Amino acid sequence: MKEWNYVIDCDPGIDDCFALLMCLKRLPVAGVVAVGGNTGLQYTERNARYILELAGYEDIPVYAGYDMPMINQIVRATEIHGSGGLGNTVVPEPKKQLEKQHGVDYLIDTFMNRDDVSLITLGPLTNIAQAILKEPELKKRIPQILCMGGSAVSGNTTPAAEFNIYVDPEAAKIVFESGIPIRMVGLNVTRQNRIVPEDVDRIRAMGNPVADFAAELLSFMGNGYVALCDACAVAWAVDPAIITKSAKIPVKIETKGEFTRGMTVCDWRNYQCQNPEMDIAHDQQRFLGEPEDANVEVALEFDKDRFHRTLFEILESYGN
Question: Rounded to two decimals, what is the model's pTM?
Fold first, then answer.
């Protein structure tokens, strides 16, 4: 199996921080590109630099992409992540400098000139869509995208739409229709995870600066139920066995619906009722095989215990 380096496009954001910390220890990260999403770009690019500096990976470059979606009005998640994206944590200006090149140009240069790089997206897909529009050959050059976004069931920002897709549905539509192979980890999987107060205590007891920072972030999110969506998504690259079931299906992005804008419309018709007792409709049908127009491999089942072991091992390793 080919060994990939990874470019991570993200909007840190608390769960992005955990995802970055996992990737830095377990994957060869070529670069990080920030996008506006959970909070504004001025914070997301700073937070990315801060995480790399805190973790001891100052040599990995960080680029700033777009702050605003292509058409949509700005949507943020500061009520979840805090105004600066890292809860109540006071973050000093990192010594690590932001790269001067625009993040979209970095994406284009990287994928047009290298054959060993894959892409992870943890925020709105604005940067990726803009890069494709600027250099359409990227459709053939990006080997795959591991995307935290969407849902095979219900949303969180609206009943139909997950936050990352809802923030910039037009960008998501461009990316999902690009022909680039996509592996999607949506809310249907990340909601299977749960970080509880006892887990926060365990992380705090590790006694290293990274673990202390992680515990502080989790304490801000509070309430005994923290999914860490982005960390769940990167787990598919960090340890593929954490995702125990997936299916390749057609997925479309709704951009015009009054109530469904930003929805990842998943076509399950070929997969209905393999287990009628677990299906809402209880409608007996036979499995018809993978659809010819399937464009996304959608994660379905998640090994929470294995994920927790991996996350705790990584956080503890920052003290070595």
Answer: 0.95
